[in-house]
Design goal:
This is Methyltransferase-like protein 22. It comes from Cotesia typhae. GO terms for molecular function: protein methyltransferase activity. Pfam families: Methyltransf_16. It is built from 8 helices and 18 strands. It has 279 residues and is an alpha/beta fold. The strands form 6 sheets. A 7-stranded mixed β-sheet has the order 12-11-10-13-14-18-17, sandwiched between helices. Strands 2-3-8 form a 3-stranded antiparallel β-sheet. A two-stranded antiparallel ribbon has the order 1-9. A hairpin with a 5-residue loop joins strand 5 and strand 6. Helix 7 packs across helix 8. The longest helix is centred in the last third of the chain and has 15 residues. It is globular. About 2% of the residues have low confidence.
Length: 279
């Protein structure tokens, strides 16, 4: 992988700095989100009426997540940043409580843990996974601790490397117990993409009905070879699936659902639903 440094667009779209440490290339950002109606809570228990004698309900309408993340990273460490796909998937989760309520959920390549934190507002149990490198596991734990007031699920943080499908017995147990798999912004390198598809193949090769939700952003580049703008990482993801003749049903979800987090929901964002046709 290249040593070229990258910075997420989220820093300019939705980033209220709570604290920063430029020496360590890290900051804690405050991400404001609108609470869906089913999460609204009465703020003041005192009963009040308006001039028409209608009951006034003073409700908290927004929430905020405190997320520690890197300001910029090399390509292989982009999981230490926050990307648009995580917000898109978080929006979908908040807008579809009936899908995620009381479910056992696994997130693959969770990065800073934002999507897992949102999922834990609804699910029964959330297992948040990523590689055990450059302090990512510890970072996820700190972010869960910072946002404990939103956590309603039992949560676990475990190591999972897309390039190593020899899982621990504990991780295997959690995957076996889970019916929903999440992944956001994990398509950025050919080897990682191939490893991700191998991981999904192992998870979906089961008699247990599981649904995978993958959020990503098509990043277009102009190539001389194609004389056109192409999205190489997205195309590599589709190629990896196609060449394996996997018995998957892949649906693209319309992303025209309500937006709860503040970010630029560009047309290049994609949300996919994947499941095994045999289930």
């Amino acid at each position: 992988m290249s040593n070229f440094r990258v910075t997420s667009e989220i820093l300019t779209e939705n980033c209220m700095t709570a604290s920063s440490n430029e020496k360590n290339n890290s900051k804690i950002s405050k991400f404001i989100f609108n609470l869906p109606l089913y999460m609204l809570k009465i703020k003041n228990k005192e009963i009040k009426y308006d001039e028409d004698e209608d009951l006034i309900l003073d409700r908290t309408k927004t929430g905020e997540l405190l997320i520690e993340h890197s300001i910029s990273t090399e390509l292989q460490l982009v999981g230490l940043q926050v990307w648009r796909g995580a917000f898109l998937l978080a929006d979908y989760i908040l807008d579809n409580p009936s899908i995620f309520k009381n479910q056992n959920v696994i997130e693959l390549g969770a990065g800073v843990g934002l999507t897992s934190i949102v999922t834990s507002m609804l699910a029964r149990e959330v297992t948040c996974t990523d590689i055990n490198s450059h302090g990512i596991i510890e970072l996820i734990q700190r972010n869960f601790d910072r946002n404990s007031q939103y956590i309603n699920a039992k949560f676990n943080i475990m190591e999972l490397d897309f390039l190593n499908c020899n899982w621990s017995s504990d991780l295997t147990k959690k995957i076996t117990e889970s019916t929903i798999i999440l992944a956001a912004d994990v398509i950025y390198d050919n080897d990682i993409t191939e490893g991700f598809v191998n991981t999904l193949s192992k998870i979906l090769n089961s008699n247990i009905k599981r649904t995978v939700y993958v959020a990503l952003e098509k990043r277009f580049v102009f190539t001389i070879a194609d004389l056109d703008s192409v999205a190489p990482m997205y195309e590599e993801f589709i190629r990896c699936i196609t060449q394996r003749n996997l018995n998957w049903n892949i649906q693209t979800i319309d992303i025209n659902f309500p937006q709860y987090f503040q970010y630029n929901r560009v047309k290049q964002l994609v949300l996919m639903k994947i499941y095994n046709k045999n289930n």
